[in-house]
Amino acid sequence: MSQLAPQIPEPAAATRQQLASALSEMVAHPDYPCLGARSVFHRDRATVHVYDELAGAGVAEQLLADLRTFAAAVNPEQGFASLVATFRGPSVLDEEHFERLLWSQLEQIHMVDDATWNPAVSADPSDQHFAFSAGGTAYFIVGLHPRASRDARRTPAPTLVFNLHEQFEALRASGQFPRMRDKIRERDEHLQGSVNPMVADHGETSEARQYSGRQVGPAWQAPFCPRPQERS
Q: Which residues contact 68 (CB under 8 A, 6 or more apart)?
């Protein structure tokens, strides 16, 4: 398997700078396929935060506060921007384990969030217009971790990338989205030998199927339950 990110033997003992540098080095690798991520790091538009444990006690409150600060400060008109949350633990056993941790973390954030779901997207993870909402802002989330089967998703420590959903909508409105999407898929195929079978455009299937990076079947359902008032 291709190794895009540098190894960090003990992520639990790593400094914030070590973890952030590993992600930056991975994205800067000539073979890294995602052009959006490359742009974010190259233009210093990645806000990196380090937390103790994915889905650990107290992390939801910290992460929600950081997402609120990020959303209030970022100007989408200046280009793609992402909040990158990387975690010192726990040790990820496999892709299913990471998927459970990811959705547990998102549900914990949702449960401490007093803002209503962003009205531009659905709160139902089975809906084709679903996107995660935190602090009233919609995000497309990319999960990365050490046990990922896709090279571009394999990082030294579990990581969640929160991408502003509106920046993808702006890219579509400009007419540039298809060209960028096709170029990323071409680069991914060159790296991996195949296009990621889980990729799909927003509105075709629920983007929840893509968050963890694990290949799932048509019967898969996200282990996420929005509050009753968000389900209408």
A: 134, 135
User: Looking at this protein, which amino acid is placed at residue 12?
Assistant: A
**What span, in angstroms and rounded, lies between the C-alpha atoms of 200 and 174?**
19
Determine if the peptide bond prior to 156 is cis (ω within 30°): no
Burial of 182 from C-beta contacts in 10 A (0-12 / 13-18 / 19+): exposed
Q: Which residues contact 108 (CB under 8 A, 6 or more apart)?
A: 55, 59, 60
**Residue 124 φ then ψ, to 5°:** -90, 115
DSSP letter string over 33-53?
--HHHHHHHHTT-EEEEEEEE
Residue 101 makes CB contacts below 8 A (sequence gap 6+) with 54, 55, 90, 92, 158
Which strands make up the sheet holding 159-164, listed edge to edge? 46-53, 82-89, 159-164, 137-144, 132-134
pLDDT digits (tens, 9 = 90+) for 138-160: 999 999 999 999 888 899 999 99
Q: pLDDT tens digit string along 69-117? A: 999 999 877 778 899 999 999 999 999 999 999 999 999 999 999 999 9
Number of CB atoms found within 10 A of residue 128's CB: 14
* pTM confidence score: 0.90
SS3 172: helix
